[in-house]
Amino acid sequence: MSDSLSLTGAHWSLRDAKEPLVAELSAQLGIPKPLAQCMASRGIETAQEGQLLLSPSASAFHDPFAMHGMQRAVERLNQAIEGGESIRAVTDYDVDGTTSSLILQGVLRILGAKRLSYHIPNRMDEGYGFSIIAAEKAAEDGVNLIVTADIGVKDHAAVDRAVELGVDVIICDHHLPPDADVPQNATVVLCPPQPTCSYPNPHLAACGVSFKLAQALLAEHPQKKAILRSLLKLAAIGTVADVVDLRTPENRSIVALGLQALNEGSHKPGLSALLRIAGVEVGELRSTDLGFRIGPRINAAGRMASATSVVELLTAPNPTRAREIADELEQMNKERRKIQDQVLEQALQQVPDPAPPVILVAGEESKGWHRGITGIVAARIRDRFHRPCAVISLGVDSGVASVRSTPQVHAVEMLDSAADLLEKYGGHPAAAGFSLKNDQLEPLREQLCRAALEQTQGQIPPPERHADLRLEAHEINRALFNELSRLEPYGKGNPSPRIWISTTEIRDLRILKEKHIKARVGPAGRGLDCLWWGSAEHFEKLNQAKKVELIGALSINRWRGRETLQMTIDDVRLA
Predict the structure, then answer these.
(1) 190 near 56, Cβ under 8 Å?
(2) Average pLDDT of the chain?
(3) Nearest-5° angle of CA 68, CA 73, CA 78?
(4) Which of 13, 55, 96, 382 could form a disulfide with 389 if both were Cys (CB 3.0 to 4.6 A apart)?
(5) What is the pTM of this model?
(6) What mean pLDDT do residues 531-540 have?
(7) Pairwise CA distance, residues 571 & 278, whole Å
């Protein structure tokens, strides 16, 4: 069967898992072969590694004082608390930043900080990062010590300005680019990727760094265990939402133990209200709920208005106030989705056929192209066309953009090639942002396409779909799902297992909400429910097909007290 028959134009492959290793893992760990095959396919080579993957626990937490600067950070914060100094947490406006703010505020209050405040920059007015504006406002307010999180390590000018005005700065960050220097005038920089740090886990999210600081500050506290368990709820949400590596035992344990605490209930009013509007059931939360239900609602505040509403929600004094804020947050999320859908529809009309090596679309912010949703729209377009995409929100003279790239094209290196056309840029290999003058749009479009082609030796390759298991439809059941679920929590580095279903019948097709396809595959009477998000364009081809192959992931659909096994489809090939 030809790869060209994939409806998304992707190449399919089965991940390599050598049979002797699969048999050894199965025997030594006492696990079924499908689970052992999934473990082998993601690089597990010994039973010891496998046991770590299957049994995340607090034993995976490294000594926080192994992080460069931690001792000094603890000493300076204790000095500030004991001396009654004014402390301010300054963090990013995304999920990682807001959960970091809550972790820092929570532990400092428990330790007795009396003059404690926080600042989260407004995306529209202040932009990303620790700004000179924030530094000067802190000094004006009489702040003695700033603790940043998820920002700061690249904000040299703001750190210098704060110090110049007599404000000390402790930085908790994880964004250090290769070969970059940390701010030399900071009192302490807690950032595992920095060259001077030998901390065993360089892949912590900022909320993870904040959690490690809390762990160090609470080293002698009699209620340390209970407090850290509560803070893990926030650290788990931020870690999943920031898409850091979950193959790392410590990150994996942060998420697993945080989920455990979330599922045990007994939450403060704000967190209970957040779980309610996210539509998740305590006792049934999984990592996907953190990433796709809770995270987007937290992010909605920073995208559409101010992330301070998230802090207000999760520190709400009573259930009534918590419900009010949560409902406001849900309205923001609904508005975000509405604007996102409108901009996506307009953006798709700008994409040429055939799609260029890099897709660049732009629209006026005054006409609805809200800069808070450009990243989401860029990701949708990238996933649809398998090309790097930049979505630009244009002001009167200049624009602000989000970039989402493919594995084959490094987003920042691509922007490096166009540095002379940009006012400001930065980010990661898969996600970046920039600003530019409006009259530079066309030169930028040409340069980005050239840069992408250089990185890919002249041709953007098709997407790849990798499966962990290849099975017949009748082999898929709830027992298999339960077995594979031992690999939870899922995320970057440890995705949910993908199953390649060999040629099977497809029937009962219907379109949901004009966007999605619902169907059943497998033998009549005991088939498997399937859902393919955003795939309505493929309906006619599937409706005419008698048999298909498909790749997807298993999940449990819960509706009105009923649980149904289903597959979320990634791709389909016609038989």
Answers:
(1) no
(2) 94
(3) 155
(4) 382
(5) 0.92
(6) 94
(7) 27
